[in-house]
Specification:
The chain is an all-beta fold and about 260 residues long. The protein has one helix and 16 strands.
């Protein structure tokens, strides 16, 4: 296989360039897993202007779910949502045991591709208490359709002026066909500058790219529709200084391509 993506094989089907005055509601839901909390508690904070999205965590922003995730705060955009009824355990991204739906969500599928190229052009943060990411999760029409493809995940405490660790790979969650295959890849880049992160997701596996160059690959591949999750997380320390606010993630575009 070539070590670059042959874009001639693909056509653009999702183009979020943040050129408008606000998010396009046909592309993004500005909430993080609201079924495990509520839409009110999980609403993202962000700015859009001049072709730039800035996801923010502000000093006064409450945790998204004290019940299930403690003090963690997050501003997230996602391209789909669904859940079972209140009181059930039927909801997307079962990140821990014992989750119960607290607010039922009507199913929405704004952009849920099955295979193709997904890419983001973004600048990471070096805040030691933050993490920025683009990942994909199964729509979970059945519990087994729950794997994750992590396009990029960068913790601020793993960023220096000249290098960083970039997480990429797949996680199974409740998909028995997937085994965990995730790696933090060291790159000799200042990831606080804008760089392109992409995956080419095919039936035979997933390939991971930074600035158009192949970085790693896996032969595993979820074979069902997945939605995008774009976010900045803040993990406040138990004691001491949490640093300056807001915590920010700058994104110039997110695009998705399907095979012609």
């Amino acid at each position: 296989m070539p070590e670059t993506i042959d874009y001639a094989r693909y056509e653009l089907e999702f183009d979020a360039d943040f050129s408008g005055p606000d998010l396009d509601p046909a592309q993004w839901l500005p909430h993080y897993l609201p079924q495990w909390s509520s839409r009110h508690a999980t609403r993202a904070r962000y700015d859009v202007g001049d072709g730039l999205l800035t996801l923010r965590v502000d000093a006064d922003q409450p945790p998204w779910s004290v019940e299930y995730d403690g003090p963690v705060r997050v501003s997230n955009l996602q391209t789909g949502v669904r859940s079972g009824p209140v009181g059930s355990g039927e909801g997307q991204h079962p990140f821990r045991d014992g989750l119960v739906v607290r607010e039922a969500q009507r199913e929405q599928r704004l952009y849920t591709p099955r295979y193709g190229v997904i890419e983001v052009r973004a600048a990471a943060s070096s805040d030691p208490h933050s993490m920025v990411a683009l990942w994909m999760i199964g729509i979970e029409d059945v519990p087994e359709h729950s794997a994750e493809i992590c396009v990029m995940e960068i913790f601020g405490n793993e960023v220096t002026d000249a290098s960083a660790l970039v997480g990429m790979g797949v996680h199974p969650f409740n998909d028995p066909a997937i085994t965990d295959d995730f790696e933090k890849v060291r790159v000799e880049l200042d990831v606080r500058d804008f760089h392109d992160y992409a995956v080419e997701w095919m039936p035979g596996g997933v390939r991971f790219f930074i600035d158009g160059q192949l970085v790693r690959s896996t032969t595993q591949s979820p074979d069902y529709p997945m939605q995008l999750m774009l976010d900045v997380f803040h993990f406040p320390p138990d004691a001491g200084d949490a640093g300056a606010y807001p915590k920010e993630f700058h994104v110039q575009r997110v695009r998705g391509f399907r095979l012609r």
